[in-house]
Amino acid sequence: MWEIRQRLLLALPGCGYLAALFISLLLALTACSERQSRTLRLAVDASFVPALESLREDFERNCRCTLHITGAASGLLYGQIRAGADFDIFLSADGVRPALLYRDGLAVPASLQTYARGQLALWVSRRLMASVASPEIPDISMLASLPAAELTPRQLILVLGRGKHKVVVADPQLAPDGDAAVKMLKALRLWPRMRERMVYANHGGHAQIMLLQGEGDMGLVPYSQALLSGSGGEYMRVPGRFYPAINQQLVILRGTRERTLAIKFVQFLLSSEVQQRLPEVGFLPANPGKGS
Fold this sequence. Notes:
This protein is an alpha/beta fold and 292 residues long. The chain contains 14 helices and 10 strands. β1, α3 and β2 form a beta-alpha-beta unit. α1 crosses α2. It is elongated.
């Protein structure tokens, strides 16, 4: 900025020092305003927030911008967007809500993309594990160590259907992972005996918090959240064949003022490098043929 001011003094000798200083200050304010505008506002399903936090540094460093992440249940974010909330991109945990925004002209044409595939985990508190002493109940620690493909419906039914403990899931009306969990319980014919024991959280992250606080001894939560649950319990990845596919889709919102930056973010998220990292944070790549 000092060099710019000196050039102004040389180019405009009649203006004087104060005039040149004034112009340089205007340039500084303009540059500052441009830097501040480089913020990308993301409405993100809560289940994907931990994954996105692990990725944000790489993107922010390369784009020299800031990601402003608002995490909540997909249904709640969808309602906010409908009401005019100021976001650039909506990363839902389903495909229904982004498609509705696209249909109604609230999303940029051709921006509807699948960016990840969600997974469910069955989380069991250590208190419940210690209280079980029946040979008919499979050992949860043993099940947790098995590859998800080896778990059987009978094993899941024995673990889920026993006792009168509370089972925590995200609100199925707002959170796609909660909807998938309830549909799985119905498919396994467990719903009639479990529906009175269900405790509903605002979203998948909230469900995991409730479990860690002791508001339930068992939960069906996003696998991404279970990975962060610490030592409060054991968890196992539930085979994807037991519940409807959780295809997570995004759209760039029509009201964005950062369309170019939004496109760069989508390209980053769909890049091979990022997609290969998704299993580490609890998700499967968008393309079933890669790393699934």
